[in-house]
Amino acid sequence: MSSEKFNNFYQNWQIFKLRRSQWSLETYDFGYQRLAAELNRLSARVGDTSNLILDHDLDTYYLMDATLLKIPEIPKILSEIRFISQINRLRSDTTPKERSKQITLAGKLRELNHDLAINKEVGLSNNYYGDLSRKSSEHLTNFKSVLEHLTEQLDKLINPTALVEYYAYLDGSDRVLNSSFELWDGTLNELDFLLQKRIDSFVAKKRIISIVVLTTLALVIYLLVSFYRTVMQTVFVLDASVKKMTSGNLDHKIILDNRDELGQLVGAFNKIADALVGANQKITVLNDRLKAENMRMSAEIDVTRKIQQMLLPKDRDLKEVIGLGIAGFMEAAEKVGGDYYDVLLHKGRVKIGIDDVTGHGLESGVLMIMVQTEVRTLLAYNEAAPVRFLTAINSVIYDNVQRMKFDKNASLALLDYQQGMLKLSGQHEVMIVVRCNGSVERFDTMDLGFPIGLDADIAEFVAEKIVHLHSGDVVVLYTDGITETKNMDKLLYGLDRLIEVIEINWQRSAAEIRQAVIKDVRSHIGEQKVFDDITLLVLKQK
User: Fold this and answer.
1) Half-sphere exposure of 134 (CA within 13 A, CB side)
2) Which residues contact 328 (CB under 8 A, 6 or more apart)?
3) Which of 393, 395, 396, 399 is nearest to 412 (CA)?
4) What are the helix (H) ranges across 126-165?
5) One pLDDT digit (tens) per residue for the chain, 542 residues
6) Helix, strand or coil, per DSSP, at residue 352
7) Are the C-beta atoms of residues 412 and 353 closer than 8 Å to each other?
8) What values do phi and psi take at 464, rounded to 5?
9) For residues 443 and 468, is the Cβ–Cβ distance under 8 A?
């Protein structure tokens, strides 16, 4: 039915588009109003028959629409018609614009009349209670009759020569107005009745829902209480058993007569207890083994640490070096570190070395001892050339690292000192030199060597740099455990701060410079954990 009405509307629209240029202004307005009214009726029908309607009590909705929107609109239109008619009476003629306005108002009245009839029809056909009074139908029929009479008079104005007397408008509009008041009163009474019915229906539904909810709630509470009592009985038994097991009685078994899921839970608990007994026995054996192993490893680490400390040069060894004041410091991050420094005096030659093995711990400590041993061995055999010296050390360390499968390497710098002249070789940190006039020089070692133990042959990378020292000159060697140490705010100590401390204290002795640097480093670290070995070596030309 809706499709048929849509097709009719579409045909009328096509006719309107084809003929509108041939019509007068009054005819055009009349045709347009009819199309608009037809479109509104089609929309209303689609809405009334749609499956998307949320409130199927359409009687209330349509009576409210008539009462609040449509009927109150009629007096407004009638007042405009009376006003235009009064002007025409005084002037004795009607302009085309006024005719057009009266035709438009007549179309609105006709549309309201049609909509009211549809509202009443839909309301009656969708009256759920079946007791909607037919009295309002009489008011609607009377209203429809007087309104059609008035609109017929207005329709005559389509003819430009037609004239309707003012008193005819006045009489017709009065009858329409009185009829609309009667229709409004009747519709309002019916609306009050229907709304009260809906309120009563909602109250009844609320009572039924409340009874169902309370009954369901009571049943749920009963089931929960019963289930709780059953579960808690089992929980009390399990709690008592757990306390006995935690006190050491792992052989205790739970006895419960339940054959439901709780009984299965108790059975599973007893199986876990049996498994714990076996696991506890294994853990005890393993724990004894771990204690013995830890004691052995701790003893080995202590021996390695003591060996490292024993290999470091003593104060008496440093004092034997003629022409240099020397002060050293080394502190491992763990019991065993990977840093190393040494000062060796052999047949008038002074060999100074500083080494930093990657990482720290036992493996790094072992590699450090290997490097120290190799340096002493080569020095004992009077090897002087830096290329052959570092190449030989690298060859031995590389073979040992591969054999022991260590993922380690070392940065090693060697200095040969003789009568105020230093020969520097090997890749390490930047060497700092503060001259006797307070100026600072930095010597980059990146191009003087290659990490020890990283490649089988490093001969092509080794080079030598000569530095001449004068009385009062200070040389500082260090590992990255100083420059890369962090405070609680994750800020690095840095090379620039190290140089600042040395610049302030360079006129003091080597031991005092060492003490000032270490004190400033510890102040920077604060309560932060130390993650790398710290090594410092200070040389001062006498």
Assistant:
1) 1
2) 312, 313, 318, 341, 343, 514, 535, 536, 537, 538
3) 393
4) 135-155
5) 667 777 787 787 777 777 777 777 667 777 777 777 777 776 666 655 554 444 555 556 666 666 666 677 777 777 777 677 666 665 556 677 766 777 777 777 777 777 777 766 666 666 655 555 555 666 667 777 777 777 776 666 555 555 555 566 666 667 777 777 776 677 667 767 766 777 777 788 888 999 999 999 999 998 888 877 777 776 776 677 667 666 666 566 666 555 656 566 666 666 776 676 667 777 777 887 877 776 766 666 666 667 667 778 888 888 888 889 999 998 877 655 678 888 988 877 899 999 888 876 677 778 888 888 888 888 888 888 888 889 999 999 899 888 888 888 889 999 999 888 999 999 999 999 999 999 999 999 999 999 999 899 999 999 999 999 999 999 999 998 899 999 888 899 999 999 999 999 999 999 999 999 999 999 998 888 888 888 999 999 98
6) strand
7) yes
8) -135, 145
9) no
Distance CA 160, CA 99 (A): 8
Backbone angles phi, psi at 535, to 5 degrees: -135, 135
Rg value, the chain, Cα: 54
Task: Give the Cβ contact number of residue 339 at 10 Å.
Answer: 28
Residue 493's CB is within 10 A of a number of other CB atoms, namely: 20
Residues facing residue 339 across a β-bridge: 356
CB 372 within 8 A of CB 412: no
Collect all residues with Cβ–Cβ distance below 8 Å to 431 and sequence separation of at least 6. 413, 424, 442, 443, 445, 467, 475, 476, 477
The residue with tokens 């054999």 is 403
Pairing type for strands 421-425 and 339-346 reads: unpaired
Q: Going along 427-526, which residue ranges are E strands? A: 431-434, 440-443, 464-468, 474-478
Best CA proximity match to 507, nearest among 469, 479, 471, 467: 471
43 token code pair: 């929309």
Stated length of the chain: 542
Please say whether the dihedral angle defined by the alpha carbons of residues 170, 171, 174 and 179, taken in this order, is positive or negative: negative
Nearest CA to 378 out of 409, 421, 420, 349 is that of 349
Q: How far apart are CA 271 and CA 273, in angstroms?
A: 5
Within 8 A by CB and 6+ apart from 12, the residues are: 34, 35, 38
Q: CB–CB of 322/347 below 8 Å?
A: no
Joined together, the tokens standing for residue 419 give 């009568």
Tokens 């050390």 map to which residue? 393
Nearest Cα neighbor of 361 from 324, 400, 408, 404 is: 408
With a CB cutoff of 8 Å and minimum separation 6, the contacts of 261 are none
- Scanning 312-381, the segments in alpha helix (DSSP H) are 315-319, 362-380
CA-to-CA separations, 354 to 74, 397, 434, 440, 487, in angstroms, rounded: 108, 16, 19, 21, 25
